[in-house]
Amino acid sequence: MNVLDASGYPDCRAEYIAAYERMANLATKAGVEGRRLTIHTPLISMTKADIVRAGLALGVDYSLTTSCYDPASDGAACGACDACLLRLKGFRESGTRDPIAYRPTTPAAP
Q1: How far apart are the two ends of the chain, measured CA to CA in Å?
Q2: What's the rounded Cα separation, in Å, for the pair 94 and 88?
Q3: Are 62 and 83 in the same domain?
Q4: Into how many domains does the chain fold?
Q5: Do 5 and 34 belong to one domain?
Q6: What are the tens digits of pLDDT across the range 40-56?
Q7: pLDDT of 63-98, one tens digit each?
Q8: Segment (H or E) for 23
Q9: pTM (2 decimals)?
Q10: Which distant-in-sequence residues (6+ apart) come within 8 Å of 94 by Cβ?
């Protein structure tokens, strides 16, 4: 979850996370007993390009990740769903090639 996700997914907003954390602390045994739940969102203020760069600095092997909502049976990303488009944009803006496979018909595929 990050700053760009909030535009299409209301549950990716910082306000939602804060409200959910409050609710979880009211509605769980742990919360009521004082063992408070904390939801960490370290990427929430980052762009996709920032996330790609941070992952690369940490040694993330992005070839083992996917964002696609509609992958092909062989696992190739569709390149057309919102998640694929945001991922491709993030890699492009970070100056890095996305290492995953995309369907051959994907115009934005690397």
Answers
A1: 24
A2: 10
A3: yes
A4: 2
A5: yes
A6: 999 999 999 999 999 99
A7: 999 999 999 999 999 999 989 999 999 999 999 999
A8: helix 14-27
A9: 0.79
A10: 48, 49, 50, 52, 53, 56
Same domain? For 104 and 55 the reply is yes
Burial class for 10, CB neighbours closer than 10 Å (0-12, 13-18, 19+): exposed
Check the CA dihedral 96-87-19-28 and report its sign.
negative
Query: Cα–Cα distance between 18 and 15 in angstroms, integer?
Result: 5
Taking the C-alpha atoms of residue 54 and residue 29, their distance in angstroms, rounded to an integer, is: 36
Q: Which residues fall within 8 angstroms of residue 9, CB to CB, at 6 or more apart?
A: 1
Same domain? For 51 and 99 the reply is: yes
3-state DSSP call for residue 67? coil
Q: Residue 60 is encoded by which pair of tokens?
A: 């993330």
Range of the domain at 23: 1-45
